[in-house]
Amino acid sequence: MTKPGYVYIMASRRNGTLYIGVTSDLVARVFGHREGVVGGFTKRYGCRRLVWFEAHDDLQDARYRELQMKEWRRAWKIELIVKMNPGWDDLYPELLR
């Protein structure tokens, strides 16, 4: 049985610093970033806003997608965010509904 996974992008603000990650528990991972529990890049650069995510049936597929996206140009990442979330709203509250 495969485990589902998510690729997500956290941002410091609109057009700010971006972080791409992968997880099997999106709510818990984003909570960790928002509260500063997850150290490193997101804490250092204030990436606390979930601006984009994508669900995958298999965690390995999500990891592969993350690796692809990390090679992308910044403009492509911003275009992806704007297509799903034109206002760069924080999507975390929607995950809790």
Largest sheet: 3 strands, antiparallel
Mean pLDDT: 96
CATH top-level class: Alpha Beta
Task: Please state the structural category.
Answer: alpha+beta
Strand content: 15-25%
User: What is the rounded Rg?
Assistant: 13 Å
Keywords:
97 residues, alpha+beta, GIY-YIG endonuclease
Can you walk through the features of this model?
The protein has 97 residues and is α+β, with helices and mostly antiparallel strands. It has one domain (5-95): GIY-YIG endonuclease. The chain has five helices and three strands, in the order ββααβααα. The protein has helices spanning 26-35, 41-45, 59-70, 74-84, 92-95, and strands at residues 5-11, 18-23, 49-56. The chain has a three-stranded antiparallel sheet with strand order 2-1-3, sandwiched between helices. The mean pLDDT is 96.
List the helices and strands and how they pair.
Elements: E1 5-11, E2 18-23, H1 26-35, H2 41-45, E3 49-56, H3 59-70, H4 74-84, H5 92-95
Antiparallel strand pairs: 1-2, 1-3
Concise overview:
This protein is an alpha+beta fold and 97 residues long. It has one domain (5-95): GIY-YIG endonuclease. It contains five helices and three strands, in the order E-E-H-H-E-H-H-H.
